Amino acid sequence: LTLKNRRTTTTHAMAGMQRDRMCDEIVQSNDGKLGDASSKRLLIRGCDPQMAARAKEFLPPLIGNAQMTSCTDDDAFLPLLKSHVEKKWDLIVFAPGAMRWDAAGKPIPGGNAET
Asked: The pTM is what?
């Protein structure tokens, strides 16, 4: 491995550990007292596709089984946001992490011409 490849591998491993820690903290913070929210629609605009995929697995039961839709770029987010005419969103959330992703040169909310 070259020095650059080792740094990239280490950076990816650290990012994975940080994601694991964040997910664990979210799961552990749930007190189990949430009621049924299965009729609620939640739209999440995040930056990290891996965290979005993980959240779809563990987050719904933690939030009363709300109907959760997530996306990680503005091109997907804006049409979903505008679709509220057909079916209202009960909650729209911007996930944290934009500063970290912006520093890495990756797309963040508000990063295209339309937003």
From this structure: 0.64
